[in-house]
Design goal:
There is one protein chain. The chain is mostly helical and 291 residues long. The chain has one domain. 55% of the residues lie in helices and 0% in strands. The protein contains ten helices and no strands.
Length: 291
């Protein structure tokens, strides 16, 4: 039986909206604590590799309304892709990771290149933040298509790991932009305290998201090879995320990593987990938060 699936991979990240209230943007991102779950039964053995690749070709996706994968996608492009893919009659037709038919489209969905526009410091930070929030909202809807597909055994654990990795990269970019945005707020503004309280709530949501992602490493529905790849993605993104988490949550994350590092069933992950623990310790020491 399967583990109950999370409602949204972006749980907690949506709290960034609270931190920047006033951007005028609404989000449909599910703002739930990590670990909030939908009604799907528990699974204690690895999911079987999804059956034959029934995904479409690049040209078939384009004819269906998906933007071309050979260019970066904006929030509007991501929404167009969600709309087109959501119309597919069979979730097995979704783009798949490293598929000979649809791998290029899947790579565009999860590409870090889609985020570079929001990292361009030559552009006004408030505009970049607003656009990044819009992209977050669109990607949340895309991730939900894959949650349903994974639940139905239409996609593989490899596909889900890539979607989660894309969420982690998006989280880091949003944190960077918020860090750039907060110093522009005027302390004598009537909504200053509300916005700073939002930043604190954002950090709490961030910690919940990280804990939820660490739990994926314990779930046997993912092959060890895919969990190992997820640890690699964590090494790239978790240091920036952990440095923003509340102090108590930093200690919880460290404790969870220590427990995972001692789990004999996760022996193959131990080297990567040891490196991840070291990365996080350095990041937290470099950028300590007020207690």
């Amino acid at each position: 039986m399967r583990h109950m699936r999370p409602v949204s991979y972006l749980a907690g990240l949506g709290l960034i909206i609270v931190a920047v209230g006033g951007c005028g943007k609404k989000t449909s991102a599910t703002i739930l604590p990590a670990g909030t779950q939908a009604s799907t039964p528990e699974q204690t053995t690895p999911k079987p590799v999804a059956g034959p690749d029934l995904s479409l070709t690049r040209d078939e996706y384009i004819r269906a309304g998906v933007p071309a994968p050979d260019r970066t996608w904006s929030a509007e492009d991501m929404r167009d892709a969600v709309k087109a893919l959501g119309m597919l009659k069979d979730t097995r037709a979704l783009p798949r990771y490293k598929s000979g038919r649809s791998g290029d489209v899947f790579s565009r969905i999860t590409s870090a290149d889609n985020l570079r526009l929001y990292q361009d410091r030559s552009r006004p930070v408030d505009g970049r933040l607003s656009e990044a929030i819009s992209f977050m909202d669109a990607f949340d809807e895309m991730s939900k298509l894959y949650i349903v597909a994974f639940r139905d055994d239409s996609t593989r654990d490899a596909d889900e790991v890539e979607i989660v990795a894309a969420v982690m990269r998006l989280t880091v970019v949003l944190l960077e932009i918020v860090d750039q945005y907060v110093p522009t707020l005027k302390k004598d503004a009537p909504d200053f305290e509300r916005r700073m309280k939002g930043v604190s709530q954002m950090r709490q949501g961030l910690a919940s998201q990280m804990v939820g992602q660490l739990r994926m490493l314990e779930k046997k529905e993912y092959r060890l090879s895919e969990r190992s790849r997820l640890v690699g993605y964590m090494r790239v993104t978790f240091p920036a995320m952990a440095s923003q988490a509340p102090v108590a949550s930093q200690k919880e994350i460290e404790s969870r990593l220590e427990q995972l590092s001692k789990d004999p069933q996760l022996k193959e992950l131990h080297p990567g987990l040891a490196q991840l623990r070291g990365d996080l310790q350095k990041a937290v020491e470099k950028q300590p938060l007020p207690r």
